[in-house]
């Protein structure tokens, strides 16, 4: 047995709706995948997809609270469809891409928007705006074998019971299959990889005490309280 310098960290996992745990390897996020959100952020609708990453241990599960992070005065919510990869692959053809999906969940891409704006202006990476601690609350994973592969369905987010974001999965510029195929040209996707597929319009700031609830029709929910 290896003689570790310190005790290895526990693996990060997400509950599966019908029992068991999904071990998280990597978290990839698609930027700007809904036309209305692209316009509200002042960008070109037809840009090809691009990706940023969050560390696996940014994942928050079980409805646990999300601490308000340091170094920001503009902490914002983004509700997203989460794709859980269940089969390894690279250079995946779009027509084969859904065979690599284990299941789906509803998640939140929490963002330090002021730090993101500074990074954009300076042409710097987004990691401190996107990949910080507790920045990816995710609900229970529903296996595709049970719910299929949702291409349409209402996606919403409310704060303290007031709806802020509303869209439809059918409004995604790049489908799940296209996103998987495109990303797999750059990296080998493996079982345990998570892809967060972008957010509809209506992103906004939250403060301590706010209750965030995301919902995707036919997929599930995610809930967290800003602590």
Explained architecture:
This protein is of the alpha+beta class. The protein has one domain: Fumarylacetoacetate hydrolase, domain 2. 14% of the residues lie in helices and 32% in strands. It has five helices and 17 strands. The strands form five sheets. It has a six-stranded mixed β-sheet with strand order 4-3-14-7-8-11. Strands 13-12-16-17 form a four-stranded antiparallel β-sheet, with no helix packed on it. A three-stranded antiparallel β-sheet has the order 9-6-15. The protein is globular. The chain starts with 12 loop residues before the first strand and ends with a strand. The relative contact order is 0.26. The mean pLDDT is 94. GO terms for molecular function: acetylpyruvate hydrolase activity; metal ion binding. This is Fumarylacetoacetate hydrolase.
Could you give a quick summary of the protein structure above?
The chain is built from 5 helices and 17 strands.
């Amino acid at each position: 047995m290896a003689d570790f310098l310190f005790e290895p960290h526990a693996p990060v996992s997400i509950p599966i709706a019908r029992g068991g745990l999904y071990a998280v390897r990597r978290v990839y996020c698609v930027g700007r995948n809904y036309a209305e959100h692209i316009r509200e952020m002042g960008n070109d609708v037809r840009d090809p997809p691009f990706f940023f990453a969050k560390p696996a241990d940014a994942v928050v599960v079980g409805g646990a609270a999300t601490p308000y992070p340091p170094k920001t005065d503009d902490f914002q919510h983004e509700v997203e469809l989460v794709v859980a990869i269940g089969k390894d692959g690279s250079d995946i053809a779009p027509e084969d891409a859904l065979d690599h999906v284990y299941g789906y969940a509803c998640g939140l891409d929490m963002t330090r928007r002021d730090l993101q704006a500074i990074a954009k202006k300076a042409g710097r990476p987004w990691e401190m705006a996107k990949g910080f601690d507790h920045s990816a609350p995710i609900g229970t994973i529903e296996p595709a074998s049970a719910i299929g592969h949702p291409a349409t369905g209402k996606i919403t987010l409310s704060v303290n019971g007031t709806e802020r974001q509303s869209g439809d999965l059918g409004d995604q510029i790049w489908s799940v299959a296209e996103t998987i195929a495109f990303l797999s040209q750059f990296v080998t996707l493996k079982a345990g990889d998570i892809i967060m597929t972008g957010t509809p319009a209506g992103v906004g700031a939250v403060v301590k005490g706010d209750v965030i609830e995301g919902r995707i029709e036919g997929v599930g929910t995610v809930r967290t309280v800003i602590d």
